[in-house]
C-alpha cells in the first residue's frame, strides 16, 4: 500500500507579511508561473482583502469561480496585482475562498476593488454564489427567471425547446 505524501508549501513573501500582521490564511502551492496562492476562510476575506489593498494590491485583474464537483465546494477566486508606474512585471497574488455549496455565501469585495462588479455578478449567475454586500447582485447572462446555476457540475438542464427565428 502506498503512503500518502503530504507536501509542505513554503510561504511566499505576501503570505509571510500577512502572517506577521495576524491575518489567518493558508499558503497553497504557487502556480506554474510562481504566483502565490492563498486560501482564506470567507469570514476573513474582507479584512485580508483590505490588508492586501493596503499592501499595494490596487488592481483586481480577475474574479471568477469554479465548482470542484458534485457534493464538493464552490471556489471564488481573486487574482490581484500591484500596479505601479513603469512596472514591467507587477507583483501578483491569487486568493481562493472555498465555499460550501449548501450555503454559498461570501462577502463582496466590490467596495475594495470596483472591478468586482460584473465579475461577481457573473459568478453569482453561473454558480449561485451570493456575494453579500454587492450593490446590484442580479443575473447578468441568464434571464432573471432562470432556475438553477448552469456551470455547477450537478446542474440538470431544463427540458424545453427554444423557438427559432425564421428568416
List keywords for this structure.
single chain, 167 residues, alpha/beta, five-stranded mixed beta sheet, two-stranded parallel sheet, 3 helices, 23% strand, globular
Structural overview:
- The protein has a 5-stranded mixed beta sheet, with helices on one face. The chain has a two-stranded parallel sheet with strand order 6-7.
- It is α/β, with parallel strands linked by helices and 167 residues long.
SSE map:
Blueprint: H1 13-20, E1 26-28, E2 36-39, H2 45-55, E3 59-67, E4 74-81, E5 92-99, E6 105-107, H3 116-127, E7 130-132
Parallel strand pairs: 2-5, 6-7
Antiparallel strand pairs: 1-2, 3-4, 4-5
**Strand-residue fraction?**
15-25%
Radius of gyration: 18 Å
Query: Distance between the terminal alpha carbons, to the nearest Å?
Result: 65 Å
In helices, the fraction of residues equals 10-25%
Strands, count: 7
Question: Which word captures the global form?
Answer: globular
Q: Summed up, what is this model?
A:
The protein is built from 3 helices and 7 strands, in the order αββαββββαβ.
Amino acid at each position: 500500500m502506498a503512503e500518502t505524501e503530504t507536501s509542505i508549501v513554503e510561504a511566499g513573501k505576501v503570505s509571510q507579511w500577512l502572517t506577521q500582521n495576524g491575518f489567518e490564511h493558508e499558503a497553497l502551492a504557487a502556480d506554474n508561473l510562481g504566483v502565490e496562492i492563498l486560501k482564506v476562510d470567507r469570514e476573513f476575506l474582507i479584512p485580508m482583502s483590505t490588508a492586501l489593498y493596503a499592501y499595494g494590491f490596487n488592481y483586481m485583474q480577475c474574479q471568477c469561480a469554479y465548482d470542484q464537483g458534485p457534493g464538493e465546494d464552490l471556489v471564488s477566486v481573486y487574482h490581484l496585482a500591484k500596479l505601479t508606474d513603469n512596472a514591467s512585471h507587477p507583483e501578483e497574488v491569487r486568493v481562493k475562498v472555498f465555499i460550501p455549496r449548501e450555503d454559498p455565501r461570501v462577502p463582496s469585495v466590490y467596495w475594495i476593488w470596483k472591478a468586482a462588479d460584473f465579475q461577481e455578478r457573473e459568478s453569482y449567475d453561473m454558480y449561485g454564489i451570493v456575494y453579500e454586500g454587492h450593490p446590484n447582485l442580479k443575473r447578468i447572462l441568464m434571464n432573471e427567471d432562470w432556475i438553477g446555476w448552469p456551470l455547477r457540475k450537478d446542474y440538470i438542464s431544463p427540458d424545453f425547446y427554444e423557438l427559432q427565428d425564421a428568416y
